[in-house]
Amino acid sequence: MDAKVTVKAGEFSRGGKSRVETRGLDHDFKPDAQVTPVGILLPELDELTISGVTSRVTSDCLVDCLESWWDEVMPRFEHIETLLINLDNGPECHSRRTQFMHRMVEFAEKSKPTIRLAYYPPYHSK
Question: Could you tell me the CATH number of the domain that includes residue 94?
Answer without folding.
Answer: 3.30.420
